[in-house]
């Protein structure tokens, strides 16, 4: 068989581990040939690719980023490019494509699959918000980076008797905020799933100082928003891909908390540092397992599906199910983390 692989959307620690695993399983176990499309869907639309043999993936398991490059693509470009993509698949003699990506990539994968392309997806995102898989690789690494940052920020916050508002990634869901906040013992956690009341947050942080504590750490997911009518909020705009961009929730909260509490407050935006660098062992293993199972699914002809973690098993699920909704933090998780607002 000849298999194409690509990485699309925001990058994520573990992408290289999947690429390596696909090549190892396909070449070693099945005698397949593998090619990698460059810069995500763009490579498929332009036929821009390189051959991936065992040498090409040697030494990349622990490397962050993606050796294939990534990009975001507008849905309309992909819709218009279906015939072009099919043409490249024919010309390159490909039997299957394995796109590795998050919500946007998997929606694009479904579109191509519905149009007859043989696709097996692999989910990735540090945000952990893909439905129907228990976990995505990259999440464990991102939570580790954020937790380490929170631990470090505690000491400087205490020296200066400050409130530090630490913004973590999570456009739609609060998984990174919840897990890093729990791991580091943050004093308040603000997530997109629960619009917050600034008065409640102020009281929560204020009570800590009244109890004699010298500092406070607030973790906020980038997509967190105030409850309607509770606070003026500068709405984000939409970027060129149609994604909502928020206007710096940590900056806003730092200004508000400082004004309301009369305590120094500083915003810290962790940003893309959460996506960079070497994946944790957990993410390397999950990524490697996804790659292995994606190749097996190709050989079984299970197209239009995606690998997923269910408990400790890797299964495949229909792409349609995977993109139907996002996996938000379930209500029962908040009971275990009383510092969530
Ligand atoms: O989808 C993962 C993610 O990390 C989001 O949490 C974040 O909003 C986004 O990517 C940022 O992406 P970009 O690389 O386009 O700035």
From TrEMBL:
**To which pathway does this protein belong?**
Carbohydrate degradation; glycolysis; D-glyceraldehyde 3-phosphate and glycerone phosphate from D-glucose: step 3/4
Write out the catalytic residues in the record: 127 (proton acceptor)
Does the keyword Nucleotide-binding feature in the UniProt annotation? yes
Query: Which compartments does it reside in?
Result: Cytoplasm
**Binding positions for substrate per the UniProt entry:** 125-127, 162, 169-171, 222, 266, 272-275
Reaction(s) catalyzed by this protein?
Answer: beta-D-fructose 6-phosphate + ATP = beta-D-fructose 1,6-bisphosphate + ADP + H(+)
The protein's required cofactors = Mg(2+)
- Residue ranges the record marks as coiled coil: none
Instruction: Kindly list the residues the record flags as site (Important for substrate specificity).
Output: 104
Identify the enzyme class. Answer: transferase
Occurrences of domain Phosphofructokinase (ranges): 2-298
Keyword set, alphabetical order: ATP-binding, Cytoplasm, Glycolysis, Kinase, Magnesium, Metal-binding, Nucleotide-binding, Transferase
**Its Enzyme Commission number?**
2.7.1.11
* Residues the record lists as binding ATP: 10, 72-73, 102-105
Q: Which residues bind Mg(2+)?
A: 103
Domain of life, per lineage:
Bacteria
Record-linked Pfam families = PFK
**Family as reported in the entry's similarity comment:** Belongs to the phosphofructokinase type A (PFKA) family. Mixed-substrate PFK group III subfamily.
Q: What does this protein do?
A: Catalyzes the phosphorylation of D-fructose 6-phosphate to fructose 1,6-bisphosphate by ATP, the first committing step of glycolysis.
Q: Assembly and interactions?
A: Homodimer or homotetramer.
Q: What name is this protein filed under?
A: ATP-dependent 6-phosphofructokinase
Organism (species): Streptomyces fragilis
């Amino acid at each position: 068989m000849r298999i194409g692989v690509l990485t699309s959307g925001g990058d994520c620690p573990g992408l290289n581990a999947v690429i390596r695993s696909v090549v190892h399983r396909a070449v070693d176990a099945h005698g397949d040939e593998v090619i990698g499309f460059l810069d995500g869907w763009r490579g498929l639309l332009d036929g821009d690719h390189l051959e991936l043999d065992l040498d090409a993936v040697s030494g990349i398991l622990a490397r962050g980023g993606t050796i294939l490059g990534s990009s975001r693509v507008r849905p309309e470009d992909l819709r218009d490019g279906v015939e072009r993509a099919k043409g490249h698949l024919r010309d390159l003699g490909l039997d299957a494509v394995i796109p590795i990506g998050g919500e946007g990539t998997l929606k694009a994968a479904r579109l191509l699959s519905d149009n007859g392309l043989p696709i097996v997806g692999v989910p990735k995102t540090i945000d952990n918000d893909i439905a129907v898989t228990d976990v995505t690789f990259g999440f464990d690494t991102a939570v580790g980076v954020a937790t380490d940052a929170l631990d470090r920020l505690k000491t400087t916050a205490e020296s200066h008797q400050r409130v530090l508002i630490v913004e973590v990634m999570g456009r739609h869901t609060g998984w990174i905020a919840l897990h890093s906040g729990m791991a580091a013992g943050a004093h308040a956690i603000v997530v997109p799933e629960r619009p917050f009341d600034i008065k409640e947050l102020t009281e929560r942080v204020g009570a800590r100082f009244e109890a004699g504590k010298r500092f406070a750490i607030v973790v906020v997911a980038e997509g967190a928003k105030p409850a309607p009518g509770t606070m003026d909020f500068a709405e984000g705009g939409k970027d060129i891909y149609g994604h909502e961009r928020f206007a710096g929730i940590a900056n806003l909260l730092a200004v508000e908390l400082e004004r309301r509490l009369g305590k120094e407050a500083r915003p810290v935006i962790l940003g893309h540092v959460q996506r960079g660098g070497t994946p944790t062992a957990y993410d390397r293993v999950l990524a490697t397992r996804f790659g292995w199972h994606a190749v097996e699914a190709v050989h079984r002809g299970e197209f239009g599906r995606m690998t997923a973690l269910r408990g400790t098993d890797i299964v495949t699920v229909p792409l349609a199910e995977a993109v139907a909704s996002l996996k938000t933090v379930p209500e029962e998780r908040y009971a275990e983390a009383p510092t969530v607002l």
